[in-house]
Design goal:
The chain is of the alpha+beta class. The chain contains 17 helices and 8 strands.
């Protein structure tokens, strides 16, 4: 520029009286034009009062600033041109003149004032725009102005208010911190509801429902895992000879173990043995080792189908066999159980090994329903007197102190199981044929329901069991170690 910046100053002064450009406004569909004051139009053939609109576009060449002033009607309308704009051409511009700096801006027309006021305030949004903002409002993603506009709209629009409530409820489901795994009682509730409307001609016996539920839950877990996860390492745990024992296998190996031991129940019901016609020992551990030795290379996910078919066949046969089948004996080699207790034992093992698999593949897995867990704890409590007698014969438990006749109350330990599936049991100490009695209780031990089952499964040590203990310490120790001795491979 020339003249030390005076040319730029002159151009600034030339447009001082020009019309001000209003600030940014909202989108056309966001602005309710009915609320904007319309400008007063001039009469036909006249010009806009109090304001002259300059021609759009720059003048050609380096013409004088007078070229920017419209000629038509300028002589008749003295107020249409700012006098200062003309004076700036005739007289030198003095930068230190106070009036040139502090001169007030010309007044805007009514239309310009209305548009500027509307832009500064919150725009009045249409119903369609507010309805489209409901999703963002439910997610708290709106600005403060949009939130206020939406909430004001919800007080007068019932359909949008209903939609907003539904969206808010859906957002609450998105932010839940709970597990997405299905409730273990869901299947039971659905089946009860269906059977309540149309009872089955041949219902599943009540004593077989825990096995039915746990095999279904484990099968759902197996259906969700990928092919590679069937080879994930699993560490099985139990207690043997007063020490913890472990064995490493795979997810497929665990299912093979369950199927091999289920063969004990299928043999009692006259069904085919999953191990074939090979003469094998009856002990669960020996059956498992025989199956693992026969599956080389290791089993894959193909083991799921025969295991699931076997569980369905066991439940179907038990349901069709009638009422007396519940007492049929199932041999485990060293001991025997009635069929109803054997299926409860198999349900317990399905849950325990299902938890082992879930931990190996990082899958959520909940305990059984409270009613089924209570039955599993009750089975363990009923097996404890025989386990105590066996340990005493092996010199692993204290001697009997007060022998009583069969069926008579004897010295007992009060086993208090708290929480999920809990209850109270009295374990006779001196004779498996005695009856536990609250009046003859010499000690009390309290554990959580799931923790007691982990002790029975051999997953925690009797010494590490977080038990509340009171009374005869020797009796408490004998009961805790007898509980752990119920575990096996």
């Amino acid at each position: 520029m020339n003249g030390g910046g005076r040319e730029g100053d002159r151009r600034d002064d030339e447009v001082r009286g020009a019309r001000r450009i209003p600030g940014p406004r909202g989108a056309v569909d966001d602005l309710d034009l009915e609320t904007v004051e319309r400008p007063v139009l001039p009469p036909p053939g006249g010009s806009t009062p109090d304001e002259a609109v300059p021609e759009q576009g720059a003048p050609e060449g380096d013409g004088d600033v007078r070229d920017a002033v419209p000629e038509a009607g300028a002589a008749d309308e003295p107020d249409a041109v700012d006098p200062d704009a003309v004076d700036a051409v005739d007289e030198p511009y003095a930068v230190d003149e106070p009036d040139a700096v502090d001169e007030p801006e010309p007044a805007m027309t009514s239309a310009t004032s209305a548009i500027s006021a509307t832009s500064a305030a919150t725009p009045v949004l249409s119903h369609q725009v507010l309805k489209a903002l409901l999703g963002a409002w439910a997610l708290s993603a709106c600005s403060a102005e949009e939130t206020a506009a939406v909430e004001d709209h919800l007080t007068v629009c019932a359909p949008c208010a209903d939609e907003a409530l539904r969206l808010r409820d859906a957002v609450g489901l998105l932010h839940t911190d709970g597990s997405l795994d299905l409730d273990p009682t869901l299947r039971t509730r659905v089946m009860d509801g269906c059977l309540g409307r149309r009872p089955a001609r041949i219902p599943v016996p009540d004593w077989a429902t825990p096995y039915d539920a746990e095999t279904a839950r484990l099968d759902a877990l197996l259906r969700d895992i990928g092919d590679s996860e069937w080879h994930a390492p699993v560490r099985l745990q139990w207690f043997e000879d007063e020490r913890p024992a472990t064995r490493r296998t795979t997810v497929a190996g665990v299912i093979g173990h369950l199927m091999a031991v289920d063969g004990l129940v299928s043999a009692a019901l006259g069904l085919d043995d999953p191990l074939g016609r090979v003469e094998v020992p009856l002990s669960p551990a020996r059956r498992t080792e025989t199956y693992w030795a026969a599956t080389r290379p290791p089993a894959t996910r193909a083991v799921r189908e025969p295991w699931r078919d076997l569980t369905h066949e066991l439940i179907r046969t038990a349901s069709l066999a009638g009422r007396n089948v519940a007492e049929r004996s199932v041999s485990y080699g060293d001991f025997a159980l009635p069929l109803q207790d054997a299926l409860l034992d198999r349900a317990f093992e399905c849950w325990v090994h299902g938890t082992d698999i879930a931990e190996a593949v990082d899958y959520p897995y909940k305990p059984p329903s409270a009613a089924h867990l209570h039955r599993m704890i009750d089975l363990a409590a009923r097996l404890l007197p025989a386990a105590l007698a066996g340990r005493r014969s092996a010199g692993l438990a204290g001697p009997a102190k007060e022998l009583v006749a069969p069926g008579e109350p004897g010295r007992s330990v009060h086993l208090e199981v708290e929480g999920h599936g809990g209850g109270d049991w009295y374990i006779p100490l001196d004779s498996p044929a005695a009856v536990g009695s609250p009046r003859r209780a010499v000690a009390q031990v309290a554990l959580d329901g799931v923790e007691f089952c982990q002790l029975v499964a051999g997953h925690i040590s009797p010494v590490e069991a977080a038990a509340g203990q009171e009374g005869d310490r020797e009796a408490i120790r004998d009961v805790l170690f007898a509980s752990a001795s119920l575990s096996r491979l």
